[in-house]
Design a protein that fits this description.
This protein is an alpha+beta fold and 870 residues long. The chain contains 25 helices and 15 strands. The protein is elongated and about 140 Å long. Pfam families: Ank_2, ArfGap, BAR_3, PH.
Length: 870
């Protein structure tokens, strides 16, 4: 708003003038506020623009680096370089734009505020001051008495002088106001117009720049279309090759694989040649010969380490320059096994458990290796023999004499630093799971050849359904790849005991009655997703059991558990009383001599245990950041064993002797009184089935876990059973504890995959780890420790799993518990960011896991812990 004042009106000092002055002063104050805000916003915009330019420069720098990395591709390099130059020009234009904003907005408006508005403020101060003086002079003149002539004259003189001063100052003030009102328009418009012209120039420059770049962009667009077509063609050819090789049975030669389709002739000819080479000899894929670089043979072999544990590790071996070397990774320096092949021999090894083994023996050491097949073993033995003969011929031609003294290897044969692969991966897991009925097609849509699985449901899935299952959350479905992920043996057995057929009988029992359509391959994703949610989340197609059906099911499961346990108990030797803490000298030897079929007491021998605990003892010392851990000894609350490697070795020595004593001093026990329905367990602690107050799906899961019936367990969970259901009528036991009583590793794994708590205790304060230790189930102990069970948990009788294992003289479980505790101590010493723990510890647990799944009889306790129920 522009307000101009009249000079005549200001001399009168009328109320109209005063009102106008007040209005002008308010308008100027608001103008100052708005201008100050605009200047601050401009400063912020300029700062943001500088940050934007800086980020843009970094982005352009990244483009240039990518162009330099693509020097082998001329099209990418030249295009990216041109794009980077254009974007750099745009950054320069932006810099000019922000500089102009600083000059036109910030500088000009700040100058207007500092100069013109300051003059206005100074004039206003003088005007306010003289106005007050004028009012005071008028008041004094009016109050002068007429009988005092000198006061009248003084008042008149002051008033006259004040009026003259007021007239002068008020005219200057009005002039300053009118000048400001006139100048504000020009200053603001000039500033903004300059800024807008800067924008016009910026966009004109950008348009001109990209107009020049447009032909190149169109050209690249055309090339890109062709590149997409070429990439699709290459992808199709590679998928054809992949599927052809994948469908070919391993170890067999198919005549059909030697011919390929005639379409796309150039590509098909190359593919046919590759497939022909493959069909000629499968073993050629497992090794390579590079004569030009002096490599007689190279490929993967398993190598047995020379440590106490005799671990096997897969390494890349090669025979070159008359040496046998191996590598763990490509960039690693090769480790020399044999420096001179003339000084060694090679032979078959048939006296060990592993197949396809051979041994390279030198004067100072021997190296045990394992091939993947008999053909590969013969190929490696022949290659080593040929290399030995070649080395002799070359040296004989030169007339050099062989030095038969021992040769020192520059590398170590001990490769125990890498954890062993004890889990199935890829085709092995796929073939086993696909052998289950119904698993050759997706469980939900029927897509053939699925490559994914839900491990808590035990079903196979196609890639689309697996993505939908992932979106449901892990509390409904846990998805894993059958070809890309590693599979632990207990998890693989879980998949093989369920399958699509079993699960669909449960989750699709009422689908036909409800008229629900099952999706087919190729159906829209939203239809498949709606069906899967209705099936697994809402459980709309599950047939709800009646009370009578539930009662029959629970009673049937209890009888099934009785039959299983009775048949298992018939195979057990007589029970022995609890072992005494002190043994007579020589009792272990006499016991071993008197028993013809003595079960091995531990996975490791005495010398291996000594080496094992020494390793963990020195490792914990090395990793500790405080005082030496080996020097700190704490007594165990249950057995008095010192928390050190020496104490562990002493305890295990006593354990082995205790086992032998128990074998010789075993006595027959009288059968206990039979309950209404008694389920015998392979221990003195019995599981008794009595008529419950009410039947529920939780009770079904409870007895199905004990009866080792995974289909019934899956059915109970589908009916809404709580996986951590507590049986208040049976010492508050859970299904996981009953799975331990049943003795099945797979049922425990199934419950854990479905969210069972590994540390939930019964009324006696015993968790699953306590019960597994009491039962002597080493495989279950190993599983619970891997799943985070608290090994330090104390029952109400003040006993921990370790103290129970010591009293039962179970060397395997004692070994596992002590190693797990040592591993925890080492991880604590390494700091809060340590997750993996010691690799040797992981290797040992993998050995136990493999044995528990594939050879459970080797870990079963011949004499379970004698612990009567309270």
């Amino acid at each position: 708003m522009r307000i101009m004042l009249d000079f005549e009106e200001c001399l009168k000092d009328s109320p109209r003038f005063r009102a106008t002055i007040e209005e002008v002063e308010g308008d100027v104050g608001e103008l100052e506020t708005k201008l100050d805000k605009l200047v601050k916003l401009c400063i912020g915009m300029i700062d943001a623009g500088k940050a934007y330019n800086l980020a843009n420069k970094q982005f352009v720098s990244g483009i240039r680096e990518l162009a330099q990395q693509s020097t082998k591709d001329e099209v990418i390099e030249s295009s990216l370089t041109k794009f980077a130059e254009s974007l750099q020009e745009m950054i320069n234009y932006h810099t000019i734009l922000f500089d102009q904003a600083q000059r036109s907005i910030k500088s000009q408006l700040q100058a207007f505020m500092k100069e013109d508005l300051r003059k206005f403020k100074d004039a206003k101060k003088q005007f306010d001051k003289v106005s007050e003086e004028k009012e005071a002079a008028l008041t004094k003149n009016a109050q002068a008495p007429r009988n005092k002539q000198h006061e009248v004259e003084e008042a008149t003189t002051i008033l006259t002088a004040t009026r003259k001063c007021f007239r002068h100052i008020v005219l200057d003030y009005v002039l300053q106001i009118n000048v400001l009102q006139s100048k504000r328009r020009s200053e603001i418009l000039k500033s903004m117009l300059s800024f807008m012209y800067a924008h016009l120039t910026f966009f004109h420059q950008g348009y001109d720049l990209f107009s020049e770049l447009q032909p190149l962009m169109k050209q690249l667009g055309g090339q890109l279309d062709q590149l997409v077509v070429d990439a699709a063609k290459e992808n199709r050819d590679m998928e054809l090759k992949h599927s052809t090789i994948q469908q070919k049975p391993a170890g067999h030669h198919s005549s059909s694989s030697s011919s390929t389709p005639s379409q796309d002739a150039p590509v098909s000819l190359a593919l046919a040649a590759a497939l022909q080479d493959f069909s000629n000899d499968d073993t050629k894929l497992e090794y390579n010969v590079d004569a030009e670089n002096g490599i007689a043979m190279e490929g993967y072999l398993f190598k047995r380490a020379s440590n106490a544990f005799k671990t096997w590790n897969r390494r890349w071996f090669s025979i070159q320059n008359n040496q046998l070397v191996y590598q763990k990774k490509f960039k690693d320096n090769p480790t020399v096994v044999v420096e001179d092949l003339r000084l060694c021999t090679v032979k078959h090894c048939e006296d060990i458990e592993r197949r396809f083994c051979f041994e390279v023996v030198s004067p100072t050491k021997s190296c045990m290796m394992q091939a993947d097949s008999e053909k590969l073993r013969q190929a490696w033995i022949k290659a080593v023999q040929n290399s030995i003969a070649t080395a002799f011929r070359e040296k004989g031609d030169e007339g050099e004499k062989l030095d038969r003294k021992s040769s020192t290897s520059t590398g170590s044969l001990d490769s125990s630093g890498e954890p062993r692969e004890k889990v199935l991966k890829g085709d092995s897991a796929l073939q086993k799971v696909m052998a289950v009925a119904g698993n050759t097609a997706c469980c939900d849509c029927g897509q053939p050849d699925p490559r994914w699985a839900s491990i808590n449901l035990g079903i196979t899935l196609c890639i689309q359904c697996s993505g939908i299952h992932r979106s449901l959350g892990v509390h409904f479905s846990k998805v894993r790849s059958l070809t890309l992920d590693s599979w632990e043996p207990e998890l693989l057995k879980l998949m093989c005991e369920l399958g699509n057929g079993v699960i669909n009988q449960i989750y699709e029992a009422r689908r036909g009655e409800l008229g629900a359509r099952k999706p087919h391959p190729g159906d829209p994703r939203h239809e498949v997703e709606a069906y899967i949610k209705a099936k697994y989340v809402d459980r709309r197609f599950v047939r709800r059991p009646s009370d009578d059906d539930l009662k029959l099911k629970v009673v049937s499961l209890s009888k099934q558990e009785k039959r299983l346990s009775t048949s298992s108990s018939e195979l057990l030797p007589p029970r022995a009383p609890p072992p005494t803490p002190k043994l007579r000298p020589g009792s272990g030897a006499s016991a071993a001599a008197g028993n013809e079929e003595v079960r091995r007491e531990s996975l490791f021998g005495a010398d291996e245990l000594d080496s094992l605990f020494s390793y963990f003892d020195t490792s914990s010392k090395r990793r500790s950041t405080g005082a030496a851990l080996a020097g700190q000894k704490e007594k165990s609350e249950d057995s008095g064993i010192q928390n050190s490697a020496d104490g562990s070795r002493e305890m295990l020595a006593n354990t082995a002797s205790s086992n032998c004593l128990n074998d010789t001093e075993a006595v027959e026990t009288e059968p206990e009184a039979e309950a209404p329905v008694c389920v015998a367990s392979p221990c003195k602690e019995q599981v008794v089935f009595s008529e419950p107050k009410e039947y529920s799906t939780g009770l079904q899961l409870y007895w199905a876990s004990c009866a080792r019936s995974l289909p019934d367990m899956a059915q109970a969970l589908a009916h809404g059973a709580e996986v951590n259901w507590i049986n208040a009528e049976d010492d508050k036991r859970t299904p996981l504890i009953m799975a331990v009583q049943g003795g099945s590793l797979v049922t425990c794994e199934f419950l854990l995959q479905n969210g069972a708590s590994v540390n939930q205790q019964d009324v006696h304060g015993r968790g699953p780890l306590h019960h597994a230790t009491i039962q002597g189930h080493t495989g279950q102990v190993c599983l619970f420790l891997k799943r985070g069970a608290n090994q330090n948990a104390t029952a109400i009788d003040d006993k921990t799993p370790l103290s129970i294992a010591v009293e039962a003289a179970n060397a395997d479980i004692v070994t596992l518990l002590r190693l797990a505790k040592m591993n925890d101590e080492m991880r604590e010493a390494e700091g809060p960011y340590s997750h993996s723990g010691d690799e040797t510890y992981q290797d040992i647990f993998q050995d136990y896991t493999q044995m528990a799944s594939n050879h459970p009889d080797m870990l079963n306790r011949s004499q379970p812990y004698d612990s009567p129920r309270q």
